[in-house]
Amino acid sequence: MPVPDAPIIGLITHPVCQQHSNGPGHPESPMRLATVHARLERDLVARGLGRWIEAPLATDADILLAHTANHLDRLRRIDAAGGGWLDPDTAMVPASLEAALRAAGAAVLAAERALGGQGPSFCATRPPGHHATPSRAMGFCLLSSAAIAAHAAIQRLHAERVLIVDWDVHHGNGTADCVREEPRIRYVSLHQWPYYPGTGAADDTGCGNLFHVPRGPGLPPEVYQRDLLEAVDHAVARFAPSLVIHSAGFDCLAGDPLGGFTLEPTHLVAVTRGIAERAGRAPAMSVMEGGYDPARLAEGAAQHAAALAGAVA
């Protein structure tokens, strides 16, 4: 049952996000988002716990807070040519650039809503973003939505400090590189190690703002949950965040075809609530990253979003 005074969570998305494609048989498929939308509609919208919000396009000014002009220009050139491959597993079709701009715009809007007192938001968008570095698209990702939102929060939304917590099974190398020189943004990442993309060692601390938790596959789920929350404890020490951004990768769930972690949706609910407690109940938002078993992804997304809203799905 919902908590009586639970806020309604904004579910930010756009139809074009389902038109992006990496080709037949690719794990990052439109079906991922279609399944998530159906589950959010059933578990949140139909119960009065969530409402759909259309994602705007991210502005160049916000994108360039995290990415180079050359990177954005390259995406536009490939888009103008009708699409193409950016790396061996990352492609663009005619809808892809708009989808990425909507995903980044959703994240910025979620930050605006959170900092403006309008409550939490979950960005049900694709492509994911956390592998996109300042100058390179890779790992299914074109733009680093979480990093763009974090920088926008600092630079123009008057946030003093931003905490990003990434629990995708793959290290968010792009997010890390986009924020590693900004001490007002702290980034915590739990990720499988060794694994793609080969980054995220525990001794990579950036300017003192990166908190990496590399862990092997197949451990008890309580170990992943405990170690992530302990890293959050370290990250928030003498750093009270103005905004919390969840970089929500549901490939950390047991059975995901691209991961070896053992977490269940109930563990992600506990993680979501644990982060809120440690962050002093700072305004929160979430962007969807990985998760390649559509049914498991949808279950995890619905329970995480409900937890953000202070309810039980």
Record keyword descriptors for this entry.
313 residues; alpha/beta; Arginase, Chain A; eight-stranded parallel beta sheet; two-stranded antiparallel sheet; 9 helices; 16% strand
Q: Please, could you describe this protein's structure?
A:
This protein is of the alpha/beta class. The protein has a single domain (9-308), classed as Arginase, Chain A. The protein contains nine helices and ten strands. Strands 2-1-5-10-9-6-7-8 form an eight-stranded parallel beta sheet, sandwiched between helices. A two-stranded antiparallel ribbon has the order 3-4. The mean pLDDT is 96.
Structure, briefly:
The protein is α/β, with parallel strands linked by helices. It has a single domain, classed as Histone deacetylase domain (Arginase, Chain A, 3-Layer(aba) Sandwich), CATH 3.40.800.20.
Indicate the topology:
Layout: E1 9-13, H1 30-45, E2 50-54, H2 60-63, H3 69-80, E3 84-87, E4 90-92, H4 96-115, E5 121-123, H5 145-156, E6 162-166, H6 173-179, E7 185-192, E8 210-215, H7 221-236, E9 243-248, H8 265-278, E10 284-288, H9 294-308
Parallel strand pairs: 1-2, 1-5, 5-10, 6-7, 6-9, 7-8, 9-10
Antiparallel strand pairs: 3-4
Helix pairs in contact: 1-9, 4-5, 5-6, 7-8, 8-9
